[in-house]
Q: What sequence folds into this?
C-alpha cells in the first residue's frame, strides 16, 4: 500500500559505505516446518539506538561462551550466528539491526519473547520468505501478441513522446540475462566503475566493479542467471526486465512501454544452484538498488510475512529518491502481501485483455493500481533471443514501473509525488468489468496516454525539435533569493525563480527547448551570498539531451554567468564531446586521462572539481588527446569533463567521469605539488637505491625498505633531473624516528641541501642511538621555490616516501666465571627483553 510520497530527497546516504559482506539466509528455502511464510531458524533483532550497544559478529557457535551479551540465552537456543544483514544502508536503524541464525527452530517464538524481555532490545521478529509471483505456461507467443500495449494506449503515448531523458529501473529479482538481444542495449552502466580500476570500489558504494548491477546472492558483479536457466528456472527477472525496458523499435523481439527511455539496473537475488520460486537473497539485492538510488525499483515477488526491518529498508529507498513498485501476488486472496502492502510501495494487481481481474490475482483495499499481467510476452533467459508468455502480478508490476519511467522521461521535472498522482488519476475505471471488487483493484487499470496528458505537456519532452536541455537546481536555505535567466544578445529567453525558503537540498528541474546559437545562463542571488556554501550546498547544472554538462555552479556572490553554445544534436558549438573518456592512471595526487581523437577537432580542454563542490578548475587547450592533472588531493573523489573545439568554436563538455585518488588508508599527512619539468630521479640511502621518473607530485614507495641500527651512520645521495632549464632545487629529508605518524619532532629532519636540478646532493645521516626499533617512514621532498615543510602542498614540488626498519643487533657480554655469553635485545614495540645463553667450552 502506498502512503503520500515526499519529494525526492537529495541527501546522500552513502558518502562512505562499509565493504561488501556475505548475507547468510538459510540455504534450505523450501519446506519451512514451523512458520510457512518465514525462514526457520532466522530472526531479526533491533537494539535500541540509545542503548549504546554494538553486537560483535558471531560466526561460530563455539564462541558463544565469550559473547558479551545474552551469552546464556544464545547458548540455550543454540544460536550459531549474529551479524548485521544490511551494511550498505547508512542509518542508525540498520546500524542497530542484526540477524540471528539458530538451530532450535521449534522455539522461534520463545527466543523472540526472551530477547524482547532484555532492556536493550527494541524488538525481535521472524524473517519473511520472498517468492516470485508468476505462473509460466508452455505456450510460446510471438511478438504480435503484445495485446497489452494497445490496452494501456502505449501507441498513443508514443505519439506524444518517444525518446527523451534516461530513467533507471532496478529489476530486483532472481537474475537478469543482461546479454539478451532485447535487453543489452538498454542496460544501466555505473560509469565510475566502467571507467574505473578493476578490483577497486571506484565510487565508494561498497561494491567492487558493479558495472551493470550486482549479484547479491553469489556476492559478485555478474547479475546474470546460471547456465542452466530455462523458461521455468531463472527467467523471471529477465522476463520482467523485458516488460519494463526491453529494446524497442529494433526490428526484433518485444517492445516495452518505456520506449528505450529506461535503463536496467540488474539486481540478482537468487543463489545459483537453487530451484523453485523462492528468491533467497532478494532483500540484499534490494539493498543494492536502494543505496544506488534508481528512479524506480520493480519487485515482482513477495510473501505473507511482515517485517519492520524490511519496511525500514523500503523507507530508505524512497527517501533516497526511488519509487518502489511491487506485485500484489497470485493467491486469489485479499490478505495483504509484502512488500506490496508496505507503506510507500505501489501495489499492483493483474488484469486480462477484458480488463477483468485475473482469477489468480490478489486484491483488497491495500492494492493501489491494476495493470495487464495475463499472457504477457517478454524475454527469457534460456538463450539470447528467447521469448515466452507468462501470467501473474509479476508481469503487471514491471509494466507499471516501465510506464512510470516513460512518464518521468517525458517530464523530468516532475516530482515522484506528481508521477504517482498522475499514475492514479489517469487510470481507467474498471469497476463495471469487476463486479464485487469495487475499491479492491486500486485506482483502476493504467493508461499511458492519459498519464502523459496528466503531466501537462512534458515540459518539452518529446515535442522539442531543437535542443532539449535540463536545468537541475538544488536549493539552499534561502531559495527566495535565487532567480535565473537565459539571455541571447541581451534578450531574456527563459527565466525561473524565486523559490521557497527552508528547503535546503531540495532538487528541482526545468526543461528548456532552445534553437541553435550561443547563450548566457545567469544565476542571481538577491542577498549576495550565492547558493553555496554557508547556508546549504545549493547549486545548478545545465545539461543537454545527451547528458553533457553545458553550465554549472552555485558558489558566487550576486551573480554567476555561464556562456554556452548549441547546435541541435551536436551538444554545443560545432563539436560533440569526445568519446572514450577515461582515466588510465590514478595516483595519490595526480590523474592521467585520455580519450578518442575526434574527427574535425582542432584541440581539447579538460576541467575538474571535487565531488560535492560547484567550482570547476579548467585546464589549458591541447592538441593531443591525453592530459595529466597534478596537485590533486589524496583520498578524494573528483569529477572530470572534456570538450573539443572545431573551427574555433568550443563544444559542450562531456558527461562526468568520476575518479578517486589513492591514499585513504594512510595515517601520515600528504605532501605533494606540481612538477612537470623537475623531478626526483634517484634516492640512495643505506641499502635503498631507487631510480624513478616523474611522479607528478607524490609517490608512495614505502615497500622499498632498508634496515638501519640505532647509532649507525649512512650516506644519503639525492639526484634530481629535468627536461627544462637549469635551476636550483631544495632538498629536505625526514625520518619518523618515534613512529608517531608525523615528522614534526626534534631531530626527525635528517638532511637539508640545495643544488642544481641535474646534480646529486650528498650528505651523512646518523640514526639516533635511542631510536626505537620498528618499521617507520622516510620522506624525501624536493622543491624549486625553497625548502619545503613535511606536509607542504601546492607549489612546484616532488615528494617520495620510503620504508625504514630500525633494528638493534644483539649486544654480547661474556661472563668469565660461568663461561656463558648473554645476548640481550630490546624490542620497544613489545617492551620485553630476552636473554639467550650459549655455553663456551
A:
Amino acid at each position: 500500500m502506498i502512503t503520500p510520497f515526499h519529494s525526492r530527497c537529495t541527501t546522500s546516504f552513502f558518502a562512505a559505505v562499509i565493504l561488501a559482506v556475505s548475507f547468510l539466509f538459510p540455504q534450505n528455502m523450501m519446506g519451512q516446518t514451523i512458520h510457512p511464510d518465514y525462514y526457520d531458524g532466522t530472526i531479526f533483532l533491533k537494539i535500541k539506538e540509545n542503548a549504546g550497544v554494538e553486537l560483535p559478529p558471531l560466526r561460530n557457535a563455539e564462541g558463544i561462551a565469550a559473547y558479551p551479551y545474552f551469552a546464556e540465552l544464545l547458548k540455550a537456543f543454540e544460536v550459531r550466528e549474529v551479524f548485521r544483514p544490511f551494511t550498505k544502508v547508512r542509518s542508525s536503524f540498520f546500524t542497530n539491526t542484526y540477524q540471528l541464525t539458530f538451530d532450535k527452530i521449534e522455539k522461534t517464538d520463545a527466543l523472540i519473547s526472551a530477547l524482547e524481555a532484555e532492556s536493550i532490545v527494541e524488538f525481535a521478529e521472524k524473517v519473511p520468505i520472498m517468492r516470485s509471483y508468476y505462473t509460466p505456461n508452455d505456450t510460446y507467443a510471438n511478438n504480435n501478441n503484445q495485446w497489452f500495449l494497445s490496452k494501456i494506449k502505449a501507441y498513443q503515448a508514443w505519439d506524444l513522446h518517444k525518446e527523451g531523458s534516461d530513467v533507471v529501473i532496478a529489476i530486483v529479482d532472481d537474475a537478469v540475462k543482461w546479454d539478451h538481444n532485447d535487453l543489452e542495449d538498454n542496460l544501466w552502466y555505473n560509469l565510475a566503475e566502467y571507467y574505473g580500476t578493476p578490483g577497486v570500489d571506484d565510487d565508494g558504494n561498497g561494491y567492487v566493479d558493479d558495472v551493470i548491477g550486482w549479484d547479491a546472492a553469489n556476492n559478485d558483479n555478474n547479475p546474470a542467471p546460471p547456465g542452466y536457466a530455462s523458461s521455468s528456472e531463472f527467467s523471471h527477472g529477465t522476463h520482467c526486465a523485458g516488460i519494463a525496458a526491453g529494446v524497442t523499435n529494433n526490428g526484433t523481439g518485444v517492445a516495452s512501454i518505456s520506449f528505450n527511455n529506461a535503463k536496467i539496473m540488474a539486481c540478482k537475488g537468487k543463489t545459483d544452484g537453487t530451484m523453485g520460486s523462492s528468491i533467497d537473497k532478494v532483500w540484499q539485492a534490494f539493498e543494492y538498488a536502494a543505496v544506488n538510488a534508481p528512479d524506480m525499483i520493480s519487485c515482482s515477488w513477495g510473501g505473507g510475512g511482515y517485517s519492520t526491518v524490511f519496511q525500514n529498508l523500503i523507507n530508505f529507498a524512497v527517501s533516497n529518491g526511488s519509487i518502489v513498485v511491487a506485485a500484489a501476488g497470485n493467491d486469489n486472496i485479499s490478505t495483504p502481501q509484502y512488500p506490496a502492502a508496505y507503506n510507500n510501495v505501489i501495489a499492483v494487481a493483474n488484469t486480462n485483455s477484458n480488463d477483468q481481474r485475473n482469477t489468480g490475482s490478489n486484491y483488497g483495499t491495500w492494492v493501489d493500481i491494476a495493470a495487464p499481467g495475463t499472457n504477457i510476452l517478454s524475454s527469457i533467459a534460456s538463450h539470447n533471443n528467447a521469448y515466452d508468455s507468462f501470467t501473474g502480478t509479476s508481469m503487471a508490476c514491471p509494466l507499471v514501473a516501465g510506464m512510470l519511467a516513460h512518464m518521468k522521461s517525458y517530464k523530468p521535472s516532475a516530482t515522484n509525488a506528481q508521477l504517482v498522482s498522475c499514475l492514479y488519476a489517469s487510470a481507467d475505471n474498471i469497476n463495471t468489468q469487476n463486479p464485487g471488487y469495487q475499491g479492491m483493484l486500486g485506482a483502476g487499470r493504467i493508461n499511458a496516454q492519459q498519464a502523459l496528458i496528466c503531466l501537462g505537456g512534458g515540459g518539452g519532452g518529446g515535442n522539442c525539435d531543437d535542443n532539449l536541455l535540463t536545468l537541475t537546481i538544488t536549493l539552499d536555505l534561502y531559495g527566495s533569493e535565487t532567480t535565473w535567466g537565459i539571455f541571447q544578445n541581451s534578450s531574456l529567453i527563459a527565466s525561473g525563480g524565486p523559490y521557497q525558503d527552508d528547503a535546503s537540498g531540495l532538487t528541482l528541474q526545468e526543461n528548456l527547448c532552445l534553437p541553435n546559437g550561443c547563450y548566457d545562463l545567469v544565476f542571481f542571488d538577491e542577498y549576495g551570498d550565492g547558493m553555496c556554501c554557508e547556508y546549504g550546498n545549493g547549486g545548478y547544472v545545465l545539461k543537454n539531451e545527451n547528458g553533457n554538462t553545458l553550465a554549472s555552479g552555485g558558489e558566487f556572490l550576486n551573480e554567476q554567468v555561464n556562456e554556452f553554445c548549441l547546435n541541435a544534436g551536436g551538444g554545443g558549438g560545432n563539436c560533440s564531446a569526445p568519446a572514450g573518456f577515461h582515466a588510465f592512471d590514478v595516483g595519490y595526487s595526480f590523474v592521467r586521462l585520455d580519450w578518442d581523437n575526434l574527427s574535425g577537432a582542432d584541440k581539447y580542454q579538460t576541467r575538474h572539481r571535487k565531488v560535492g563542490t560547484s567550482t570547476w578548475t579548467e585546464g589549458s587547450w591541447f592538441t593531443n588527446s591525453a592530459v595529466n592533472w597534478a596537485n590533486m588531493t589524496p583520498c578524494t573523489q573528483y569529477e572530470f569533463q572534456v570538450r573539443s573545439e572545431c573551427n574555433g568554436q568550443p563544444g559542450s563538455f562531456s558527461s562526468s567521469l568520476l575518479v578517486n585518488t589513492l591514499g585513504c588508508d594512510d595515517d601520515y599527512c600528504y605532501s605533494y605539488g606540481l612538477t612537470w619539468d623537475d623531478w626526483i630521479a634517484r634516492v640512495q640511502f643505506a641499502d635503498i637505491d631507487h631510480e624513478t621518473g616523474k611522479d607528478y607530485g607524490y609517490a608512495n614507495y614505502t615497500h622499498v625498505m632498508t634496515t638501519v641500527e640505532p647509532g649507525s651512520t649512512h650516506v644519503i645521495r639525492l639526484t634530481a633531473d629535468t627536461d627544462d632549464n637549469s635551476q636550483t632545487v631544495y632538498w629536505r629529508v625526514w625520518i619518523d624516528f618515534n613512529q608517531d605518524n608525523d615528522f614534526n619532532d626534534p631531530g626527525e629532519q635528517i638532511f637539508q641541501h640545495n643544488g642544481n636540478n641535474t646534480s646529486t646532493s650528498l650528505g651523512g645521516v646518523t640514526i639516533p642511538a635511542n631510536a626505537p626499533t620498528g618499521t617507520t617512514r622516510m620522506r624525501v621532498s624536493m622543491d624549486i621555490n625553497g625548502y619545503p615543510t613535511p606536509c607542504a602542498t601546492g607549489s612546484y614540488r616532488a615528494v617520495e616516501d620510503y620504508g625504514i626498519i630500525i633494528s638493534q643487533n644483539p649486544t654480547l657480554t661474556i661472563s668469565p666465571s660461568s663461561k656463558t655469553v648473554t645476548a640481550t635485545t630490546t624490542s620497544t614495540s613489545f617492551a620485553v627483553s630476552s636473554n639467550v645463553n650459549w655455553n663456551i667450552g
User: Anything to note?
Assistant: The longest strand covers residues 698-708. Residues 393-410 form the longest helix (18 residues). The two ends are 91 Å apart (CA to CA).
